Amino acid sequence: MRVAIAGAGAVGRSIAGELLENGHEVLLIDKAPTAISVERVPQAEWLLADACEITSLDEAALQRCNVVIAATGDDKVNLVVSLLAKTEYGVPRVVARVNNPKNEWLFNESWGVDVAVSTPRLMSALVEEAVSVGDLVRLLRFSHGDANLVELTLPEESALAGTQVGDVQWPQDTSLVTIIRGTRVLTPTREDSLEAGDELLFVAAPAREEQLEDLLSVRKES
Fold first, then answer.
1. Which keywords fit this entry according to its UniProt record (predicted)?
2. Which of 70, 122, 182, 222 lies 20 to 30 angstroms, CA to CA, from 142?
């Protein structure tokens, strides 16, 4: 998979390193000469250019990319890069970094963003996830398709503890994608039973989140 990353700062280089370790082809783009540190990520391609300019993106051959990541520290730049990647080059997947949570509402499909990642919001969500049992925690928003990645740790008193996945009447527009049980990561099947303490990850429409939380947190009858 070919991935272009706009922004070769600490965030962009870190992402590039992870992708390269997983066998992907990575191009780092930055307009600041001081950001071009080839020795830090030598396996990546590097391009000194302004990612907001069509000529630069032509040089980067953005049309050959499967994914574009707008990872600069400037939300305006990330929005422009996302819009150009989607509308001018038809990139299938555009991921954008949100630096200021107040701008999060802009990072949607109107600006070409498929997935918006807000670091402050994600950090807050991870704190909530670490201390919350029985409460739904929103981890990530998918702009394209109007869905969120949400997590809930199944409480001891949940009526669903001991129930098989296939026997649960899940709300419409929700999908259980992963069960984290201790150190194990399980891909759920209909025969798997839910256990108290399981971390359940769902992709769910925002309108269904409250219904999903109510279903999972309902107490057993005494």
1. Ion transport, NAD, Potassium, Potassium transport, Transport
2. 182
Which comes out higher in pLDDT, residue 222 or 153? 153
Under 8 Å between Cβ of 72 and 54? no
In the predicted model, is pLDDT for residue 65 greater than 90? yes
Q: What amino acid is encoded at 53 in this protein?
A: E
DSSP reduced 3-state for 142? strand
Residue range 60-73: mean pLDDT, rounded: 95
By CB neighbour count within 10 A (0-12 exposed, 13-18 middle, 19+ buried), where does 39 fall?
A: exposed
Phi and psi, residue 219, nearest 5°: -80, 150
Residues near 45 by beta carbon (within 8 Å), at least 6 away in sequence: 25, 26, 27, 28
77-94: b (≥16 Cβ within 10 Å) or e: bbbbbbbbbbeebebebb
Output the CA angle 209-214-215, nearest 5 degrees.
Answer: 100
Q: Which of 101, 57, 102 is nearest to 83 (CA)?
A: 57
The count of other CB atoms within 10 Å of the CB of residue 194 is: 22
Helix (H, G, I), strand (E, B) or coil at 179: strand
pTM for the model = 0.63
